[in-house]
Amino acid sequence: MKCSVFFFLLLSCLAVPVLMASEKIVPPVLSLLLHPLASNWGSGELSDADRPSKSWMDGFADVTPILVTSTIENALSSCTPDAYCVLQISGSLRLTDTVYLDRSKTKLIGDPGNSVLHAVDSDGAFFEIGSSTAEIIIDGLNLDGESRDYGNNYVFGVVVSGES
Q1: What global pTM score does this model have?
Q2: Which of 26, 44, 119, 155 is the most buried (most CB within 10 A)?
């Protein structure tokens, strides 16, 4: 499916100038389009049999969300150890540093209109999921890096680090 859309868009971009007689398709492009393996380019769809099990996600179904009122770290400390935990972000939340999610079985959800502002003046991320941390869901958060120049610094939404 992806290949078909790609080739349709590519052919459309190339066909308009040809139809207008302003340019011609150059031989290298034409030979790429007509290449016998061109229909196999791109990635195919992944079948459900090849995907990891998602049954663990059901563990969040009956969990009452904890409203984040000050910091995500403070809300995380309210979670029952080794149990599924859901944190709910409503309104605007300003991060002063990267939030390290090193607790498994954690789900962060955002109410409509939420905003998580990255206010760090250096390299970093909104969230970093550390080594050996599993079963994390981030859903519906509006990550806002502000409209400012970070210079040579890089800001990432979510960083996954370490092994497994």
Answers
A1: 0.66
A2: 155
